[in-house]
Each structure stands twice: as structure tokens, then as C-alpha cells.
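Aim 2, interim progress. The first record below pairs a target sequence with its C-alpha cells.
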Amino acid sequence: MGEEKQVNEAAKELSKLGASKGGVARAKKLSPEERSEIARLAVETRWEKAGKYNNETKMFKADYVGKLHLGEKTIPCAVLNDGTRVLSERSVAQSLGKKGGGAHWQRKKSDISGALLPEYVSAKILESYISEETKEKLLNPISYKSKTGGEAKGIPATLLPEICDIWLKARDNGALTTESQKTTAKNAEMLLRAFAHVGIIALVDEATGYQEIRDRIALQQILDKYLTDEWAKWTKTFPDDYYKDLFRLKNIPYPPVPSTTKKPSYVGHWTNDIIYDRLAPGVKKALKEKNPRLPSGFRGRKHHQYLTRDYGHPELTDLLSNVIFLMKSCSDWDDFKERLNRAKPKYGKTLLLDFKK
């Protein structure tokens, strides 16, 4: 972060410790390293209050672990209990051709003597290529409890591309002078190429087995928005125009004969196909579980009675309006299905997720 923002943040934290008077002035007298340390301790305190640390060790905990294969390099990785994806810091260093993670904070007696970047980015010639934001992350590795119970240190998985980019920028500008530095840049280039076409988050999720868990969590969040366990009182949701155009496109007289209050079962199959399969991922399957068929062959309720009133029901109504509009512009069923599949494809079993987070 910029110096002014860092000073303001430090002053804010000092005020919480009873030093509100002259907080900004006091913060300005601190070194950047001391201000960064105050910010780090404040973050730890907030995380602890939020219950994100393991209660016994005051650390994050690795819920899922695995090994990330990048070309010829292998880097242990984990997904922590707050969803953070981390890479073993020592292995990151080794993948770049360095011996270990390196020191981050060096203390002499009770004073902070200065901040030391990890060995894999500590070369003086790299200083101008490291942003303040990246530097702050490098100075504050994540301590967490491993699956075996020991303490481990990692860096956010998203930081690895930034580290590689630092070395490549330095190489491109002719700043690297030793063979060792050039070898490290070559390793950085190899790592970047290994995940150039796939997000680093996706790679960690696949390596740790968190991918399936992530998909289930995402699906459950969708279902929580759309569905409720308490069915609502029936209200007319599917307008007559929907059924009239449906039968017209199928070239079947409307209303069906004999006309009853219940539509023929094949109407339900059509509706599943053109509405519930396209409403949201997993919704149709969940509705069938909440609203199973009775011995009579019919369901006890209408599916839409299990949709949430604040989100699921409005989404259904909006989809219905669009489908009816499309129906009226089509001459037959095949024409309608072709246009519908282009405009609103069915949801498959795999969720489309954003891996850039």
C-alpha cells in the first residue's frame, strides 16, 4: 500500500490501543516495517475474532492438501479452512532454484532491525520491480496447521505468478548479471508457462481435491437462493398463454381432451425441459427431491411452490416471460427448441466458476 495509506492504517490501529491523540503524527515516525507489523498484527486479531483461526493453535488449518505439478517442478499446496489457497513457501523457493524460503523479519533484542524479503526475491536488483502490495504479501507469509498437526508456512497461490513476473521483468530489462540469477529467471519462465492457460487457483483446487467440494459449495449457495423447505400457498404462476403456445407448437388441440384441472403428465416433462432445466444449476433435481411423486403418479405440490419468494420465484417469472415471448415468434416445436437452446441452454452438471478470485 502507499505510504499515506499505510500511515493512516497504522494510526487507526494505534487509536484502538488507546493512542488516539496524535495518532497520525506518531504513525509517521514509525518505519515502514513497523507500520507493516502493526497492520499484520491487526489483521491477525480481526481474523481471530472472526473465528477463522484454529482455536487451539490460533492458526489457520489446512482442510485439503495436494501436490501441484508444474512442468518438472512439484509444489505442495493446500486449501485452508477459510478458503485461501496456499503454496509451500520453501517449495516455491526450491522451484525457482533457491535453497529455502528465507527470513522475513529479523529482530535484534527488542527492536525491529528491518524487513527481509524471502531469499527468492531478496536480490537488490529486484527491488524496483516489486510493488508495495506484493512486498507486503511477501513479508507476511501465512502460518497454518498442516494435516499432520505441525506448523507450516505458505504464500497465497496467486502470488506465484507475481513472483515469476518480477524475475522476468528484471531479465527483460537486462538487470540480471549472474548465471544464478539468469537460471532463476529461466525457472520462473517455465513456471509461468506451466499455468499460462489455466488459473493457478483452479490448479490448486484440482491438486488438493477441493474442486469437487468447491462445486458442491457453489451449488448449495445457488439452491439456498432459489429453494425453500417450506412450500408456499399455490398461486397461478404459469399463465394460460404458456400452455396455449406450448400446445400450438406441439400441434395438439388446446385445451387437452378431456379437460381436467390437472394437465397430462407429458406437459410436466415439457416444462422440465424448457423451464426447470434452464432456471439454475441443480434446481430441477432438488425440486424433485423436495416434491416427490405420490403413489397416484402426481406430485403433492407444484414445483414453483418451493421457490423462494424473494429470488427463486421472480427468476422463474422472468424466465417464463422470455420463453413465452420466444414461443410466439416460432412456427413449430423444432424451430422453438433450436432458438431456445441458443438463447438459454440447459445447465449441465459442471458449474462455470470464476477462478480469478
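The second target in this work package is listed in the same format:
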Amino acid sequence: MHDQFDGSTADYYRRYAHDGALAAEAPSRDISSWFGMAFKAGARILDIGAGSGRDIACLCALVCDADGIEPNDAMHVAALQRRPPLGPRLAPGA
């Protein structure tokens, strides 16, 4: 188990991952529209607390070298189920 949160925070993210909120997430978010201006193609980026992997997927689509770390086990598993290509890019841990 890699959860590095207090109990209530870990429980919140477990519920978020399992109760359908993750499945209802939009494929991008407002800040994603700035990624192309903020990062050049080939930029190496580490997303700490990567959640669903949404930002990593957006960054990779921009030809960035993006990886992530997700400290909540339930979120990590759900992210890999939702976005299998992120397998080698999204690690568990804190």
C-alpha cells in the first residue's frame, strides 16, 4: 500500500476512484489549453499527484515526455484501468 495520506484524505480519493467521479472526468481541463504554450515538444515533465493521469495523457499528446507519481493506490489503479497506455509512465508512491 502506497497511500501517504491521513485516513480521511485517502478515503476521499478511494471513493472518487470507485464511485464514478473518475469515469465522468472530462478528457482535459481548462489549464490543459496552456500546456502547449508552457512546454515545448520533448520537454520532460513529472506530475506529482497525477490522479487519473489526465494531464500526463494531454502532455504526451503534445509530444512531451511526461511521467507521473500517484500516492493513492485506488487512484493509481483506476488511472491505469482508464488509460492503459500510461502504464509505464505512471508509478505508485509518494
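Residues 48 and 69 are 5 Å apart (CA to CA). This observation will shape the mutagenesis plan for the next reporting period.
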